[in-house]
Structures are given as C-alpha cells and as structure tokens.
Amino acid sequence: VSRRARGCARRGRLGGEGAAMAGDGAEEEEDEEGEMPPQPNGFLPGKEAERGSHAPRAGAGALPEAQAMLPAPGSGVARAAPRLSRRRLAVLAVFSLYSLVNAFQWIQYSILSSVFVHFYRASYTRVDWLSMVYMVAYVPLILPATWLLDTRGLRLTALLGSGLNCLGAWLKCASVRQDLYPLTLLAQTVCAVAQVFILGLPSRVAAVWFGPKEVSTACAVAVLGNQLGTAIGFLLPPILVPNTVDNIDLMGHNISIMFYGTAAVSTLLFLLTGVVFDEKPKFPPSQAQAVLQDVPPEDYSYKQSIINLFRNIPFVLLLISYGMMTGAFYSVSTLLNQMIVTHYPGEEVNAGRIGLTLVVAGMVGSIICGLWLDYTKTYKQTTLIVYILSFVGMIIFTFTLDIGQLAIVFVTGGVLGFFMTGYLPLGFEFAAEITYPESEGTSSGLLNASAQIFGILFTLVQGKLITDYDPRAGNLFLCAWMFVGIILTALIKSDLRRHTVNSGILNTDVKAVPVDSPTEHEKNNTVLKNQSESAL
C-alpha cells in the first residue's frame, strides 16, 4: 500500500465525522467557524520512490494520479466541498482597482509628452522612456516575480504590487521640480516593477477565488481593470494638466495635483489590499482547486514547473501566438498618434480619442469573451475565431486609414480594439486550461513576457517603416505576423485539463502545484497534528 493510501486511510479514521458536502455553487456561510479541514496529501510524480514507497504503477492496478488524490468511496475521508466565498468579489474589486491605478501611472506621461518635455526641459526620447520603462522592466523580472507568487503566495505578491505602486506614486509627488527628471524616472521605474507583480495575477486570482462557472468572467474583469486604467489615462491627465507653456509654475501646480491625487488613491488601495486579500478562501471554489490543495508545498519545484511549461507544446504555440497578437496591439497603441497625424495633420486630440475608443471597445470585448467562455468552455474555437477577426479588423483598419474620413477611422479602430483586447483574457484562460495544474501565475507571466518582447520589437520595426515609408507599410508588417499567429493557434491541441477535473473526469495524471504559502501549510500541519493527538 502506498504512503498516499495509508495517509488517506489514517485521515479517514481521524476525520470520520467529516463536513457535509455542499454543491459547487453554494455560498460560504458568514457565521461559519474554524479552518478548512486538512486535505489528503499528494506527491509529485516520482516522490513516492524518493520517500521509500513501493506503490504499484497504474498498469499494475494502481489508481490514476488524480484519483489517488481523492478519497476512495466508503473510506470515510471528509473532503471540504467546493464553496464560493463572499469575499471573492471584494478581492477581485480591490485587485482590479490597484491594477487600474498602475496602468494610469504608465500612460500619464506619454499622453502629456509635450507638457513634460517643457516642464523637465527634456527631449521627447527621455520622456518616452518614462513609458518604455514598463516594458523594459517586465522581461527580466517576470521569472523572479512568478517564483515569489508560487513559493510565497498570492497575498504577499498582491501586497508587493499594491505597495510598490503606492511608493512610486509618492516619489512622483517629490519629483515636481524642473531639475528632478531623474527622480521622476526612478518613481516610474518603481511603478514598472509593481506592474510585474500585477499583470500575471488575473488568472491566478480567478482560479483561486472563483468557481468553474465564473472563472473566465472573473479573469476578464481583472484584466478589465488594467484596460480601464489606460482609458482613464487617455482621458483625465490632459484635463488636469493643460499645456500652459507660458506659465511653468501653474504647470507644476497642475502636475502636483495629478500626482498627489494618484498617491492618495494608491495609498487607500494598498490599505484595502492588506485588509481584503487572503491567501485563499476557507473552502476551495472548485474541484480543480480542491485537488491542488492536497499537495504539500515542499513537493513543488518552481524550476520543474518552468520546464514542464516549455515541454508543453500547446502552451509554447500559445506563448508565441499570444505574444504576436498582444505585441501588435501594443505597437498600434504606441504609434497610433503618429499614424493618425501622418494622414490627418493637426488632429492630435482626435488621435487621443481614437485611442480611447480602441481601449473602451476592448473592455467590452474582454467582458463578452469572458462570459462566452464561462457559458461554452470552447477555449480553442473562441481563441481562434477572435484571432481571425482581429486579423480581419487590422486589414480593414490598414486600408481605411488614409481615405480621408476620420469618422471611419473611429469605427475601424473600435472594431480592432474590441477583438484585439478581447483576446487578452482568452489567452490567459486558455493557458490555464492546457497547463493545469501548473501555476496560473507562471503561465500568464510568461504570456505577458512574450507580449512585452514582441511589443518592443514590433514597435521599433513598425515605427521605422512608418518613418521611412508610410503607416500602411507598418500595418501590413503587423498583418503578416498576425497571420502566422492564426496558423500557430490552429495547431494548438485543445486539452482542457482544468475543465476535465472540474467535471469530475479524473483520469489524467495530475502534478501537484501548491496554492498555500509555506506559512499556511505549517498552520494546516499544526491542525492535523492536534486532531491526531485528540483522536488518540
């Protein structure tokens, strides 16, 4: 008999009176006391041999890995039934809001580039770096950030993201002086580091806190917060800080109002993060999370998780195709002003409004795509269709940009944003499905890193093509790469592992990934020890 079987039997004797089973959609009672009962342990493949177990292989009559992690019928083992916590909505709201502020802080410099060029007496290139630092910082820091998320947990990562966002906002308040450009660059760098602890969390927050019928919508809402921050960043800073070139003191005063307002909101959200965010809900929200909670954190290897992801061919294909699509979106957003002004001189204000239209339409697309996934679970089909429609939208945008009708550009820009931005939560959720049970934070972090790399490369090449030729040449360059992305997406095998577990079809080999932090696991061990002593 394997160690896992003996452990389950022992816990069955200790917890024979187990908790009553409730439905997947049941809400957690507010007056409920006590912690969730400790779950049966599970080991990574190969751990049994390392620990001296002589469990038979599946071919010799052993249960499949996922089934071995569940209590056998009639064993008396009490597994906490999946329930939905009321706190999940507050967690999602707080995360979305501080993600919004982080995105607002990213765009507030580039939308006011002419203002900051005059105020800091700096070149446009130096002001552009205040936005580019977000992309540059993300790539080298994403692996340490996802390691921290997987080994130290969701709460600490959320506090770091919100806390650094708050710190960067206050440093900006101290940089409102014409000779303090280096300090405002440092402040923006701190905000860029905060972004690393934010962008990879939507799918993790959704998976840990939300049930299978709402997880995709929750992920879309979490992504929506960042998009809404960009939209507000297009709209609000030009109102707060008009370009008063003749009155630098008034310009500095207006910049201070914007910075102090941002810092106050960031501080409030940091405090709310400390109050609202827990490592996980008291009860798992889904069967997939219940299985993962069975596994002790010491059996988890972050290095092995990365290796597993890069050995997963469907994920590698998604990693590349997602990077192409999102990188193209970043490039279009960055160079939109330049493209519009080339064909419509003097229309800088309308260029900003087109950018706002693109982002707002994308927010609607994100929500609709998330709801559709929760309803249909057609991950590959939806991802491929949205990819194709984004490609078609890019073609239409390219060939209608120079016809002299700005109203048409508003429409085609909105259509393009609807599908390109709607693709973002699709990529996160599809990755979570085909890589389960690997950490959602690691998979989405790698997707974002791919997007940043492609975004930098596409922006540099498309910008050069626009300068040397015209916007059509740059857009056709993006269309060619998006077509390659369609082919790669079509090649992805749709292996919906998480959905399979949530459906109760547990015939797959599940490698464990902890959702507990080490501190949480030590507490669970203490509870188990106390129960054992009292039973004996």
UniProtKB/TrEMBL annotation:
Main location: membrane
Gene Ontology terms: biological process: erythrocyte maturation; heme biosynthetic process; heme export; mitochondrial transport
Topological type in the membrane: Multi-pass membrane protein
Example GO molecular function: heme transmembrane transporter activity
Keyword Transmembrane helix: yes
Transmembrane segments: 89-109, 129-149, 154-171, 183-203, 215-237, 257-277, 313-332, 352-372, 384-401, 407-426, 446-467, 473-492
Protein name: Choline/ethanolamine transporter FLVCR1
Function: Uniporter that mediates the transport of extracellular choline and ethanolamine into cells, thereby playing a key role in phospholipid biosynthesis. Choline and ethanolamine are the precursors of phosphatidylcholine and phosphatidylethanolamine, respectively, the two most abundant phospholipids. Transport is not coupled with proton transport and is exclusively driven by the choline (or ethanolamine) gradient across the plasma membrane. Also acts as a heme b transporter that mediates heme efflux from the cytoplasm to the extracellular compartment.
Positions of region (Disordered): 1-60, 516-536
UniProt entry keywords in alphabetical sequence: Cell membrane, Erythrocyte maturation, Glycoprotein, Membrane, Phosphoprotein, Receptor, Transmembrane, Transmembrane helix, Transport
Gene symbol of the encoding locus: FLVCR1
Catalytic activity: ethanolamine(in) = ethanolamine(out); choline(out) = choline(in); heme b(in) = heme b(out)
Biased composition annotated in UniProt, kind: Basic residues: 1-13
Compartments in which it is found: Cell membrane
Residues of the Major facilitator superfamily (MFS) profile domain: 91-497
Compositionally biased tracts (Acidic residues): 25-35
Biased segments, Polar residues type: 525-536
Family: Belongs to the major facilitator superfamily. Feline leukemia virus subgroup C receptor (TC 2.A.1.28.1) family.
